[in-house]
Amino acid sequence: MLMTPEHDVRSQIQAEMRSVFPVVEGRLQRFYAMQEYHLGWRNEDLTPAEADPGKLIRPQLVLLACAAAGGDPQQALPLAAGIQLLHDFSLIHDDIEDDSAMRRGRRTLWNIWGLAHGINAGDAMFVLAHLAIHRLAEVGLPAERVLAILRRFDEVILRICEGQYLDLSFEGDLSITPADYLAMIGGKTAALIAGAAELGARAAGAPDATVAALADFGRALGLGFQIEDDILGIWGAPEQTGKPFAADLYRRKVSLPVVHALTHSPDRARLAELYRQPALDDAAVAEVLAILDAAGSRAYCAAIANEHHQAAFAALAAVQPPTATAAAARDRLHALTQSLIGR
């Protein structure tokens, strides 16, 4: 599988995700069609669609980590599907909690069908993620290994919920520190990426040292990934991000560059005053940008992201592939990490 083109791997992941959806009688078809809309499989009128699923980084990490640890990635497909369904469940609820009307250029599920349906559809996708992982027993993994994976999977979910709690708690709080912020993204973003790599190794039945190294790799990759995203949210080109320039500033998002400036800038009182306004116009955003630039916030974030990227490479180097095929998979993990730097 891993030597096939990336498009084919993504197709296999999505096919595995589709296989978890039950065949239901007519009264329930719309319920699952709503979820399929969120996944890009249907249009807003619930007719079939073929939206670009994106890179599917998290499930690909599962498959590559499994292979790098000496396992058969074909046996890890149910786990990869479960990881992606979990990610999408979290996005459904995240859109509700953030009052977001749009995602990936399309209206969000709750925005179309209402809050109650949005919550219920997200809950169902949470269950589908678990049902996907239960299929590991059907593809030959020992029952005790599947049970251990499910337990760790739920621990990862709890970490994500903790991170989301911190994120919600920090809204409007201009006193948080960089350490506070890193603790938050360690749960909200990095926990699932770390979990994808760790659980891929567990699916392979890898030694504890390999599992730990791949978990460390994923955690560092996730932290670096989110910090890069914070940089793009302010300074990224619209043609690159698909968002307006400085979109996060117009939203008054308290991302790491802003947290840094609120902590270190001599103009932090003015920055806080601007951020307490109900909305920022172009002149206010230009002033915030000037404060961030003077504080060196972009360079600070780039340096922190680089530290985490280097930690990811170091953890990956500690993985000892048992075969040439496993070594090739580890190389693919290295290449994937490299592709996410400076994206």
Automatic annotation (TrEMBL):
Protein name: Polyprenyl synthetase
InterPro entries assigned: Isoprenoid_synthase_dom_sf, Polyprenyl_synt, Polyprenyl_synt_CS
GO molecular function: metal ion binding; prenyltransferase activity
Signal peptide (residue range): none
Keyword Transcription: no
GO biological process, one term: isoprenoid biosynthetic process
The keyword Acetylation is assigned to this record: no
Similarity-based family: Belongs to the FPP/GGPP synthase family.
PROSITE patterns named among the record's database cross-references: POLYPRENYL_SYNTHASE_1 (PS00723), POLYPRENYL_SYNTHASE_2 (PS00444)
Keywords from the UniProt entry: Magnesium, Metal-binding, Transferase
Coiled-coil ranges from the UniProt annotation: none
